[in-house]
Design a protein that fits this description.
The protein is α+β, with helices and mostly antiparallel strands. Among the domains are: 159 residues, no CATH class; 239 residues, Glutaredoxin; 222 residues, Glutaredoxin (3-Layer(aba) Sandwich), CATH 3.40.30.10; 279 residues, Spore Coat Polysaccharide Biosynthesis Protein SpsA, Chain A, CATH 3.90.550.10. Strands 1, 7, 31, 33, 36, 38, 40 and 50 form an 8-stranded mixed beta sheet that branches. A 7-stranded mixed beta sheet has the order 43-42-41-44-47-46-48, with helices on both faces. Helix 12 packs antiparallel against helix 34, helix 18 crosses helix 19 and helix 32 crosses helix 33. The longest helix is centred in the middle third of the chain and has 24 residues. Its main location: endoplasmic reticulum. Belongs to the glycosyltransferase 8 family.
């Protein structure tokens, strides 16, 4: 009889003022220029609006509309609604709190570690600042453009828009502009509001529970009243107030309305078969404007709508062709993606590209591939040739052989040069012999590998083979290859190298010795001497230098250089075999697609792949680089110097592009897709050399045009800028051809020397005699590309990519070929209004985007069964394609997201129905709400509306529901306030509103850790996370599965370290990725400043003296208990926390899980039964994830009364481990899957006792039970109650054959030896097996029990004596007398409810129940009197961190 609705509210510490700060962060992501412009504009905004929330919000949007386009403005509204930047601002707040702020300061500054808010002190602090180390700056810091990168750093902590901020900001600005300081601004609120912020971007599921076994608590709950109480448009709250005399009749009407609309009649199987199609038909039948609302309503309330629409296929969402996986990506990453796409589309639009072509250009994949680059290998001396040598004649030569199936790991023998290994060697180096012997092993074993060698030897004509061993070996090889063949020559070389003594070098006599032995009649000097005819291939050195492949020796596989560490002879063999297998799949694909056939030359085909480059220069090939933003279009030029200075970076770049003149190979109008801007000081030899190399390259290529930018080393003067001004004048006044010839002369060193020696410029070109000195040219473009440009710095800007200065003519060729392959040609082919300038600008824009997946084109999809919503004409639009089965969980998530997208941005939307037929079961058994709003809403009085929330209205009365939250991966939430049992919501018994609040307790930091030496995860390694003043706030253990670890924290900057103790003694951190500290830093700094997932990678290495030590050896204890020590709550009443801890051997650790009020009631009774019988002190461990707020409130009180310790542990189910969707199965998973990481290493044994058990003995006996080397002990299922034989599933079928005579064990009670468990990696094995089996929905039906029983051969189980667990369902009555524990198993025959069974089976159960009730009532009385504070020990939170609440008023 309740109308149900559910609200999720989310407040942040920063209420309204925060909105300005959030907006500044939004702008900072656009560009630092916009951020500082905004900061300038909002210095004192407190007086610009009346005092309402809405006025403040409107002021923000008004200021924003000046700096943002309409699309960006909508995205800003969405970001504010999502509170996307509240975590960013909280992280700044935490950093400020750690400083800490000087007392009484509303804003303050830090100069190299000294803080103050007295501006008078700033000068004194700056004077000696450089004697102190510079402060650490984070990636998200706001750094003002500085004229002097070496100036002292001043960090200002202040709140935007306040008087204090304005005063300090002006001071800092004046100093920064003079180059006296580097100015950094961080947000800081001296008095943050205590309100909490409602979050959005998560789903709420109300799942229908299976009621086969009754598991409801009979304790009555006092309801909460709903003042509105709306059902089908009737406001019963008001009606009752206005017509109190009709109260009973209104109650009847309300009940009738609810029951008539939404009761759930069971469907027959024939009615279910086509449900999916019927649902799709209803959606498609609606007008397209309403179709999304219909889809949302049908999918989210599917269980009740199923009656009307008389069926799951796969679902997918694509935005602009990019795949959005809603299981992996949360709304915050979708928001980032929308912003990026908007930026590119608007950039293309501002380059005057028409809207229809924008999507064509977006689909171009212009990102350089991450693949390994390769060099051309068509010039070495080949030892063998698979296609022509006789020894391979029996192999098939048809490339189709690749598609013939073989066993995995078999290398196909085909007479084609698919696999080519080239060794570039210096014969005189020690390791040459080892590498050659590996090549010989490949050759002699008939591995299908073509082998080539390049000898890098002295190439001077004066040196011959009688003086130089390298030249001697090369000439000997050539002689034998000519005389016999390459194989024989190869064999001779091996003999020569084998003569070299260990540790020695190749000498001429080693070569001569072999030649004399094999060719006794030949004159040696005719082969090796000065007149030798065997000098071919002597140019190996030139080839080696031109390819730029790095220090010798080098091994190339199909042109790709192998890593240094792979050249170890043992390693090399494995690596090459692995490469052969890996590359085979590439060739299979090309053969299958018809790109490669038997007539083609395979080596030519390999050399035409996009990853093949003329040379390898890591500076050019690395994907990290700066870009110029060239997407602005304006009519400014750099000679309007006064105006140019006041343009922002983007417009300055455009003005430079407008002003640039180019040199080309020929004066013709063809499009040149590659533009080089050469930057340097052309009055210095290095600058002229760079320009000369660029011109020489440009003269060889028709794809290139060349522009010149002078970046003088010192201030300009006529004497010191002769060449630069001559070049500039030529570019401005001459035809391209004349300018090119003149500038080529100017770039030559002898010209410069002559000019500086007093020679007249007119001697070089008479044209310049007149107007030459009139042109000024100080171009500050370069400053906009680099944060801190050095005067005179050289660079090459290629289509907007800024590259550092190590360049020669070959590098220009490399740069050109890369641009042509990845982007230049593709863009040139797509753009209609073609111009070289446009190709350059589009390339700069597209290439600067983060590398994503390839985009998918949907033009080919059929247009049947689709909802279509057309975009507004002429505006930039997002192309959104959704494929969905309307009756799946995906549809429940997708529909609300599409509705918000449609309101947020201009969309071209197509939704395709992808239904599944022949359904035999209801496809959706849950109601669902996705909490998301496109913008903030307001009340009538202009104050903020309560915020985003989930509401479930008009729910059916009869089912039993359980509530689940579906949040982003990195959120750890807990239920903080509700009177109801959220595991068992039964609306027939609820008189009013079911309300629940959840709190976002922590953000998760995840990572993967590997040992660089072994490549394996270091099992048992521990990390701690904390701050400088409090180094251990949380800690964790690394799993062997993927080296995974997780830590929980709040927004802020944290330090990650190896835990003091064995971890820190044995290992050191070797490298890290994804963190916020520089690569060489000792401490890893990690900044959590977003709601998105943060995943880091850490590599560790054993210290040299610890190479033989193991972390999980038998004789070690970590003396600190602290696994997530922040969760320790109560201590025993007898001992005070500061007393030394009892020896852990004297504490029995008992672990249990429970969810729902009934099981928590059983759990308290189980604890009481343990405490009544066990003399040894007990410590209980509970899984925090599913406990109710009531239980968490009561447990400290109970611990105080009975004198036990307890700790709440929690672990987030890792994203890579197959997720369970049903709450009961998730809880079962936690019972078995994470035992090795849930507990600190100090706990070496624990007992698991099910919540519904009663203990009748001292558990010390079980704790001390000898497991005989097994990691855990379980009790087998009883066999004595014969009438249940029909239900003993383990007696037949799969289980009977798998167990092979062993017993099937019950998971209600077990004992785990954690030391042994960790040592044999039992947890990792269990997770591995689970991952394999759980993909099949029909396996592991009792997950916590089936998994260990299924693994009995890999992870042995010690069977406990039968009396340790008696349960009436399986054990006969006679054995009850000896029972040490009694378990209330479900009875599949009688289906008797738990409570009834407990009272009937266990005589003492009711007394325990009454005792707990008395204590609980005392607790409630004390709570009302306000005297329970001493028991409410909350989590140890770091001072100054925030707790954002996700208030989930589930009003049901």
């Amino acid at each position: 009889m309740a109308t149900a609705y559910l609200i999720v509210l989310c407040y942040s510490l920063l209420k309204i003022k925060g909105a300005f700060i959030f907006y500044s962060e939004f702008l900072a992501e656009e560009s630092q220029d916009k951020f500082w412009d905004f900061v300038e504009a909002t210095q004192n905004i407190e007086n610009d609006h009346d005092d309402t929330d809405q006025a403040y919000y409107d002021l923000i949007l008004k200021r924003a509309s000046v700096l943002l386009s309409p699309v960006q403005l909508n995205l800003l509204k969405f970001a504010l609604s999502l509170r996307a930047y509240s975590s960013t601002v909280h992280s700044f707040q935490q950093i400020a709190t750690n400083e800490p702020p000087p007392p009484g300061c509303k804003a303050f500054f830090n100069v190299h570690g000294q803080t103050s808010c007295d501006s008078e002190r700033l000068k004194a602090m700056l004077d000696n600042a450089l004697e102190r180390p510079k402060p650490y700056l984070f990636k998200g810091d706001h750094k003002f453009r500085s004229a002097n990168p070496d100036a002292p750093v001043v960090i200002l902590y202040a709140e935007l828009g306040t008087k204090e901020f304005s005063r300090f900001h002006q001071l800092m600005l004046s100093k920064a502009n003079k180059g006296l300081i580097t100015y950094v601004l961080r947000h800081f609120l001296s008095n943050p509001s205590k309100g909490k912020v409602l979050l959005s971007g998560y789903g709420v599921e109300l799942a229908i529970k299976n009621q086969e076994y009754k598991a409801k608590d009979d304790t009555q709950v006092q309801g909460e009243n709903d003042p509105v109480d709306e059902v089908q448009g009737f406001l019963f709250g008001k009606l009752k107030t206005n017509y109190p005399e009709l109260k009973e009749q209104l109650k009847e009407l309300r009940k009738h309305l609810i029951e008539s609309t939404n009761e759930m009649a069971p469907l027959k199987v024939w009615q279910m078969q086509d449900l999916s199609f019927q649902t799709a038909a209803r959606i498609l039948g609606a007008p397209s404007v309403d179709a999304l609302n219909v889809m949302r309503d049908l999918s989210q309330n599917f269980p009740t709508k199923a009656r009307y629409s008389l069926q799951p296929g796969d679902s997918a969402l694509f935005i602009n062709g990019l795949h959005i996986d809603l299981d992996v990506q949360d709304i915050f990453s979708v928001f980032d993606m929308l912003r990026n796409e908007a930026r590119v589309m608007e950039g293309l639009r501002s380059l005057l590209i028409d809207t229809p072509y924008i999507h064509d250009i977006l689909k171009l994949n212009v990102q350089p591939s991450d693949s390994d680059y390769a060099v051309d290998i068509r010039s070495p001396a080949w030892i063998n040739n698979l296609e022509t040598d006789g020894r391979y004649a029996s192999w098939p030569s048809n490339v189709q052989e690749l598609l013939r199936p073989t066993f995995p790991g078999v290398i196909r023998q085909i007479r084609k040069n698919f696999h080519n290994l080239v060794m570039i060697l210096d014969p005189t180096l020690e390791n040459t012999a080892e590498l050659i012997s590996v090549a010989e092993m490949f050759y002699s074993n008939n591995i299908p590998l073509r082998i080539g060698v390049v000898f890098v030897v002295n190439d001077s004509d004066e040196v011959d083979g009688m003086q130089d061993a390298g030249v001697a070996l090369l000439r000997a090889f050539n002689y034998i290859a000519d005389d016999v063949d390459s194989q024989m020559a190869f064999d001779a070389i091996i003999s020569m190298l084998n003569r070299v003594p260990s540790g020695g070098k190749l000498k001429v006599e080693h070569v001569v010795g072999v030649l004399e032995k094999r060719y006794p009649y030949v004159e040696i000097s005719s082969i090796l001497g000065p007149d030798s005819a065997y000098d071919n291939n002597r140019k190996g050195k030139a080839y080696y230098e031109q390819t730029g492949v790095g220090p010798l020796p080098v091994v190339l596989y199909n042109g790709m250089p192998l890593q240094r560490e792979q050249l170890d002879p043992d390693e090399l063999e494995t690596v090459v075999m692995h490469k052969i297998l890996e590359t085979t799949s590439f060739f299979q694909r090309t053969v299958y697609l018809g790109e490669l056939n038997s007539d083609h030359d395979v080596v030519d085909f390999i050399m035409n792949q996009p990853n093949v480059v003329p040379r390898i220069n890591s500076r050019i090939l690395s994907t990290s680089r700066n870009y110029l933003d060239l997407s602005a279009t304006n009519n400014h030029f750099i000679d309007e110097y006064a105006r140019f200075l006041f343009l922002d970076t983007k417009d300055k770049n455009a003005a430079v592009a407008n002003s640039m003149n180019y040199m080309t190979k020929k004066d013709d109008g063809i499009i040149r897709p590659v533009t080089f801007w050469v930057v340097g000081d052309f009055d210095q030899p290095s600058g002229r050399q760079l320009l000369y190399d660029a011109i020489r390259h440009m003269k060889t290529s028709n794809n290139v045009r060349l522009g010149v930018i002078n970046n003088p080393s010192e201030n300009l003067s006529n004497e010191k800028s002769l060449i630069a001004r001559a070049i500039w004048a030529a570019m401005q006044t001459q035809t391209a051809n004349n300018a090119k010839n003149f500038i080529t002369k100017m770039a030559k060193e002898e010209t410069a020397q002559a000019l500086y020696g007093g020679r007249d410029i007119a001697d070089y070109d008479g044209l310049f005699a007149q107007g030459y000195f009139s042109v000024g040219m100080d171009v500050p473009l370069f400053k906009s590309a680099y944060e801190s440009p050095n005067k005179g710095q050289r660079a090459v800007i290629s289509n907007g990519r800024v590259k550092g200065e190590v360049f020669n003519q070959d590098d220009f060729l490399l740069l050109e070929s890369i641009i042509l392959k990845t982007s230049g040609e593709r863009i040139k082919g797509k753009i209609q209004q073609l111009a070289s300038d446009l190709v350059m600008k589009v390339d700069a824009l597209l290439s600067s985007q983060p590398k994503g997946e390839a985009r998918i084109d949907f033009l080919s999809i059929s247009h049947h069964s689709a909802v279509k919503i057309r975009p507004k004409e002429e505006d930039v639009y997002f192309d959104v394609v959704a494929v969905v089965d309307p009756v799946t969980r995906d549809a429940q998530k997708l529909a609300p997201l599409l509705l918000v997208l449609k309101q947020l941005v201009n969309v071209n939307l197509r939704v395709f129905m992808n239904c599944q037929s022949k359904l035999s079961d209801l496809p959706l058994k849950s109601f669902y709400r996705y909490v998301l709003e496109p913008e903030i809403s307001f009340m009538a009085d202009s104050s903020f509306a309560p915020g985003p929330m989930a509401k479930f209205l008009d729910m059916p009365q009869s089912p039993l529901f359980t509530l689940n939250l579906n949040t982003p991966e990195s959120w750890m939430i807990e239920s903080v306030h509700t009177r109801y049992d959220l595991d068992n919501i039964y609306l027939e018994e609820v008189d009013s509103v079911v309300a629940a609040e959840y709190e976002l307790e922590y953000l998760l930091l995840e990572g993967h850790c590997f040992d660089v030496t072994t490549g394996q995860p270091p099992r048992g390694l521990q990390f701690t996370l904390g701050t400088a003043s409090d180094p251990v706030i949380v800690d964790t253990i690394v799993m062997a599965n993927l080296g995974y670890f997780q830590l929980k924290a709040n927004p802020g900057a944290w330090i990650l370290r190896l835990r003091k103790g064995r971890s820190d003694d044995i290992y050191k951190i070797y490298s890290h990725d994804g963190t916020d500290s520089p690569a060489e830093a000792d401490d890893l700094i990690v900044v959590l400043n977003t709601f998105k997932s943060k995943i880091i990678k850490v590599k560790v290495q054993k210290k040299p003296e610890m190479m033989n030590e193991e972390l999980l050896s038998d004789g070690t204890h970590e003396n600190d208990s602290g696994f997530w020590t922040s969760l320790t709550r109560g201590f025993t009443g007898a001992s005070k926390p500061e007393e030394p801890k009892q020896e852990k051997d004297d504490v029995i650790n008992i672990f249990s899980v429970a969810s729902g009020h009934l099981y928590e009631r059983f759990l308290r009774i189980m604890m009481l039964s343990v405490l009544k019988h066990t003399k040894t002190p007990v410590k209980f461990w509970f899984l925090k994830n599913y406990l109710s707020p009531i239980f968490k409130e009561f447990i400290p009180y109970m611990a105080e009364k009975y004198g036990f310790q307890y700790e709440l542990v929690q672990y987030k189910w890792p994203r890579w481990l197959h997720q369970q969707t049903e709450k009961q199965r998730i809880i079962w998973g936690y019972k078995i899957l994470f035992l090795d990481v849930l507990f600190p290493l100090a706990v070496d044994k624990f007992l698991f006792v099910d919540a519904d058990q009663i203990v009748r003995t001292d558990l010390k006996e079980l704790r001390d039970f000898d497991l005989e080397g097994a990691p855990y002990g379980y009790t087998p299922f009883c066999e004595s109650r014969r009438e249940m034989d029909g239900y003993r599933f383990w007696k037949s079928g799969y289980w009977a054959s798998h167990l092979a005579g062993r017993k099937y064990h019950i998971s209600a009670l077990y004992v785990v030896d954690l030391k042994k468990f960790r040592k044999i990696a039992a947890g990792d094995r269990l997770r591995g097996q689970y991952q394999g089996l759980s993909q099949d929905p029909n396996s592991l039906s009792n997950l916590d029990q089936d998994l260990p029983n299924n693994m009995i051969h890999q992870v042995p189980i010690k069977s406990l004596p039968q009396e340790w667990l008696w349960c009436e369902t399986w054990c006969d009555d006679a054995s009850k007398q000896k029972a040490k524990t009694i378990d209330l198993c479900n009875n599949p025959q009688t289906k008797e409810p738990k409570l009834q069974a407990a009272v009937r089976i266990v005589a003492e159960w009711s007394d325990y129940d009454q005792e707990i009730k008395r204590i609980y009532n005392n607790f409630l009385e004390e709570k009302e009197r306000g005297t329970t504070d001493s028991y409410q020990q909350t989590d140890r939170k770091h001072p100054g961190t925030c707790n954002i609440i996700l208030q989930h008023n589930v009003y049901i």
